[in-house]
Amino acid sequence: MGKDTSRTPFFIRHRRGRERGQAPRQLLAVLALSAAGLVGIVAREGYSDKAYPDPVLGTAVPTIGFGSTEGVRMGDTTTPVPALQRALRDVQTYEHALKQCVKVPLHQHEYDAYVSLAYNIGASNFCTGGRKGGTSVLVQRLNAGDYAGACDAILGWKYAGGIDCSIPGNRSCAGLWKDRLRMHAQCKGNAS
After folding, report:
1. Burial label, 60 (beta-carbon count in 10 A; 0-12, 13-18, 19+)
2. Who contacts 176 (Cβ-Cβ below 8 Å, separation ≥6)?
3. Which of 14, 36, 99, 177 is the most buried (most CB within 10 A)?
């Protein structure tokens, strides 16, 4: 008969199963986006000192600075320091949302990948999959302890404006697919 582990705290059960040489996953309460994670986000988003239309949603969602959209109007301008400060505030919003829907401990590289994805697709989409009152496939897998499956679910976010960005030879959104592949590798601990 197997040992009943139902009363053993989750983080202890999962610490026993970690790979050799790898630090244990941390409770979300102690995690924050790493400096490398922030650099990855701002490098991916790029910088614009003038508000520009979202590549998919157009002027309905103007974007400025390092990918910020909240409260932005066409015609708005910024400079690098305020744009980075705003990106940091945005990151905190996404981290808070992630900590509300994810209930399991994570490695830093997993956490950074998920915050980066939430920054790109929005906190609500990250948590709900775009379904009101629902839970995204990624979060379902993660909360079930399927860490590899949750990382793989990043690759499901491959559409932009109804176009499958993973199709070889795609010219309209190949960068999005390249970014998802990078996030996937980061999530698995294979980031370059």
Report:
1. exposed
2. 158, 160, 165
3. 177
Write out the catalytic residue numbers: 45, 54
Task: Give whole-number Cα distances, 160 to 32, 126, 168, in Å.
Answer: 28, 15, 15
CA distance 177 to 159: 8
Tokens of 187: 């999530």
| Residue 181: band (very low, low, confident or very high) from pLDDT cuts 50, 70, 90 | very high
Give the residue carrying structure tokens 């897998």: 141
Q: pLDDT tens across 152-179, in order?
A: 999 999 999 889 999 999 888 889 999 9
Sorted by sequence, the CB contacts under 8 Å of residue 53 that are 6+ apart come out as: 59, 61, 62, 63, 74
Distance CA 100, CA 142 (A): 13
pLDDT in tens, 85-97: 999 999 999 999 9
- Looking from the CA of 30 toward its CB, the CA atoms found within 13 Å total 9
Q: Which two tokens stand for residue 22?
A: 């790898």
Q: Indicate the SS3 state at residue 50.
A: strand
Structure tokens at 134: 């629902």
Does 63 score more than 90 pLDDT? yes
Tokens, residue 78: 């910024």
pLDDT given for residue 12 in this prediction: 42
